[in-house]
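Wed. Picked up where I left off yesterday with Metal-dependent hydrolase. The coffee machine is broken again, so keeping this brief.
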Amino acid sequence: MMGRSHLIIGTGVSLSVLQLLGMQVTAPAVTVALIGSLLPDIDEPNSLLVSKALPSSLIRLLQTILLPAAVFVYFYVPAKPCNLLLAVFIGLVSFLPSRSLRKVLMFAIGLGLVFYGHAFAPWNLIAGSLLMLCTTLTHRGLTHTLYGTAVWTGLLYSTTQQQGPEIWVAGGSAYALHLLADSLTNRGIRPLPPLKLRIRANLMSTGTKHGAVVENVCVILTLILAWFAFSPLFL
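Structure written out below (tokens, as returned):
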């Protein structure tokens, strides 16, 4: 399923559920619902979430900076021959395709969170480790499992439980809805690896005309649910 459909369905349904359960729909709840609806696709560098967080303009800027950086390392770093090896490595990285460069950036950000982020917040160590791990995963792998759902929901619960349940409920349900939506596709998901159990409804294939119809139907049903949940506020 396309990223924009995940965004609408995951966010719309999770916030509607909050409203119907009588919970507050706060700005933090909306934020984690938006993130949670796209987060399982963090294992795909060209996904909506990653491409928005690391846009093409940033990738082009990085490529522009890396080549001069390689020249600088070669001529001005005195540690020979390590400077040559490092310069060659930096130069090669600059010619990587955008998808691979996004993975490099994700790994570098995760590494920074592990070594320096914990000074600002202890959970940065976990976030950085998970970010680096995601760069090694295949699409619809570990992040598209009940384990991934439990980790995301648990992190939200442990860090926001004093602010009320609406944050972790919104974020966790939006994440789970992403998995449910992907289970409608021909490929489906494996929710409990290493078990071979695969959940797939074979209703659609992402990127096809039939798939677009199924996605549009799901989006319309989401909008109907949202209208039913929130319309009393305006009547």
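Quick read: The radius of gyration is 21 Å.
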